[in-house]
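Exercise 7. Given the components listed, write out the predicted structure of the assembled complex. Treat all entries as one system.
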Amino acid sequence: MSLEFDRKIEQTLADSRLQQAIYSATGRFKQARLNVIAPDVLPDYQELRAQANRLKQYTLDHLDHYLEQFERNVEAHGGHVIFAQDGTEVADFVLSVAKARGARLIVKSKSMTTEEIDLNERLEHHGLEAVETDFGEYILQLAHERPYHIVAPALHKTRYDVAEILNQRLQVPHETVIEKQAAIARAALREKFLAADIGISGANFLVADSGAVVVVENEGNARLTTSAPNIHVAIAGIEKLIPRAQDLAIFLKLLARSATGQPLTVYTSFLAGPRREGEVDGPGEFYVVLLDNGRTKLLADQEKRQSLYCIRCGACLNTCPVYRKIGGHSFPWIYSGPIGAILTPQFLGREKEPSLPFASSLCGACAEVCPVKIDIPKLLLQLRAEVRESPRGASGSRWEKLAFRIFAWLMCHPRAYEMAGRIAASLAGSENGSWLRSLPWFLNRGPLRAWLSRRDLPPPPPRSFRQLWRQR
Amino acid sequence: MKSRDAILARVRTALGHALTPEVNPPDANHAPPDPPAARLRIPEMGMEARISTFMASLEKLAATARRAASPAEAGDIVRQLVENRRAVASNAPYLEVCGVTRFPGVRSGVGGRVELRQLCASADVGITSADYALADTGTLVLLSGPHEARMISLLPPAHIAVLPCERLLSGLDELFAVLPDPAALTSSMVLITGPSRTADIEQTLVRGVHGPGQVTVVLVG
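Answer.
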């Protein structure tokens, strides 16, 4: 485990206020999701998941075809498609548009894809002002922080934090009522919307047969971003394609339910090109940037290709016992939780945080709630194997390997195993799982001490199964 | 074009479809088999059931649902709602049928993008019709065109929508069955499900953060 990962986890675990915030927010999302997928409310939930999974698999298996179909249809409606291999190419494109139109101010709606490539920093570096307009993202941008959760970016912030941030960055009076804080943000951002030259959005879906970008949201900032400025640029990963508009009937039913427990988000925008003849408003220019940034690498691995099915609902975070303890900022990249644990090593390389695929109990809750049925535990196991097989992974932990060799030997020798069990039972004094930390000194030293200090084990019962069997 | 060809070539290589773009030019690209059939399940639902489901869904969203027996009655309801307030109405023919566009204080027939935006930014109420509505989620479906603009249902702090009950569909499945290709009709279709909201800070619900915090639907028939 890297020191950084370790330090952030320690910090999060020690912060009881934060522990409470994570636990209660994810708990609410969990319950809200359960309420709207209950069999009496949505009887065909499992069928919808299966169909969503089939559609994602099918589209990715024929991605070249759908990328080209999407491109043709966007152009047919007067829009333009730009392929970008990485963040630099995305930024270069936005900068070229801004330069050609003399644009300085950009409004942005929430997009994990632009977080992935640090777009705001890149644009600001070239003298453009890029303003996040989702309430939570706006607060985080003012505080120079990255999102804590895919769906609830400012989950870790209290109203007092927000009061402090608004007071310092906007020079407004200290205001701790959340409704009034939202009104302050609304007023500040309203000016930006009306003055902005360019609006940058992400995309939840790209519809191939329509050449349309679909954006879902609750606040209305994405609608404003995509329709107030004269230029709309949508930035999306190439994996966001779905074949037909009709397929939205499946995905829209799953997305908001899995994310926030709403049957539908407040706004769903289906955007196909610039404003047309006769339309009063809407952007005059419409661009869709299709980003690779490593996605084709994931596509090449038949098993791991399913990582690209993800529709960024965040349900796996909310249900994950590990995320619910260590939170979002402990993770090394913007994608956190179970999905982050499989995306990060594939996008950034296993070396970024080799222990990440191991930070899971493999309980399978993530796979159970995933609306597109990504087999996250299986992919975690595969990534673990890859880490172990890599040269650094193999040489990293001699002691652990030795311990597992001893364990394997014990498992193959029943008498020795039974003996070890009896010794363990005699050492386990206390009733709870922490007895591992109070072992006699000769078992509690050096690397073994470090290993045991983080592990709990229920004490063995007074009589083992073998003893009971013999006496039956 | 360089990045386009590079990415498409990488996709094809990853999928084992072709060696290079030269060998497999885009238009000769083998068309895939048909995708799994679209899954649209439209429940049997009579008009009264649609209306009651729709009204109940709206109430659950903290939107206001009103029912009028005739266009004239709908007009009266709207007149009371916009009294002494500045309102902008869309060019939807149905609003004219209800007489809404003739009320004092209601601006309608605005054709310029910048002018409309300024009007909406300072108005108290935006009035639109809706092309469809979805009963099971309480959703309004608005297609941008000469009859509806985007800003009217977005910039003012309150939104009133007036529509005849014949436009009520059961849900998303029926919408996409009726409208399999929305892009053929409009550059923008928006589904509006209740008032604008956020729960970003301490999961405390706040309405009207960017879009209208009040949504009133007047259903006629």
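Discussion: Chain A touches chain B through 98 residues (CB under 8 Å). The radius of gyration of chain A is 25 Å.
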